[in-house]
Amino acid sequence: MKLFAFLWLIGLALCHNVLLPPYGKQCFFETLKKNDELAISFQVGSRDPQNGEQLKASFYIGSPSGQVLVKKNDIDHGDEVVRATSDGKYTYCFSNERSSRVDMDVSFNVHGVIYIDFENPDSNTLDYAIQRLSQLTSDVKAEQGYLVIRERTHRNTAESTNSRVKWWSVFQILMVATNSLFQIYYLRRFFEVKSVV
């Protein structure tokens, strides 16, 4: 009887960043065998620290036959997983084709599960264990890179909000000071004694 197992392997060692210009699109591919899983996690942001807006892009995954397996529009982050039904190149794309306003910074990680047959004699060697440990370490490193990008995006949003609150507070202080000066002036004129000779 065959034993089957899935082993988490990272497709790429580092987190990738893509800059999508207005009406831009970037596509990538992974070559998978049947029963492999392709997992992609991504975050959309801006490289401009003054931009506190949460940007949104479109994302889709296509099969080797051209069939669209996953399609998401107007999302700012996501984690998508597809299982390969046949051997071939699976394409995934990020798109800014609906927006003409701003460049988008998309950071993404590609990882997945590769189908392993434990009856294969090569799967029980020290080299195999070292390769597996190396790939799991790379997976942790890629996830940390992804979290750094998310932290940068959220920090930009927080700094933009803090700036808006600061200027609104300055405006309120000026309005209160102006109102106070007007009231003092008005009350002094009201209680001023006018003498008639």
UniProtKB/TrEMBL annotation:
It is a single-pass membrane protein; Single-pass type I membrane protein. GO terms for cellular component: endomembrane system; membrane. It is found in: Endomembrane system; Membrane. Its main location: membrane. InterPro entries: Emp24-like (IPR015720), GOLD_dom (IPR009038), GOLD_dom_sf (IPR036598). Keywords: Membrane, Signal, Transmembrane, Transmembrane helix. Residues 1-15 form the signal peptide. Residues 25-112 form the GOLD domain. Pfam families: EMP24_GP25L (PF01105). Belongs to the EMP24/GP25L family. This is GOLD domain-containing protein. It comes from Candida tenuis (strain ATCC 10573 / BCRC 21748 / CBS 615 / JCM 9827 / NBRC 10315 / NRRL Y-1498 / VKM Y-70). The lineage of its organism: Eukaryota, Fungi, Dikarya, Ascomycota, Saccharomycotina.
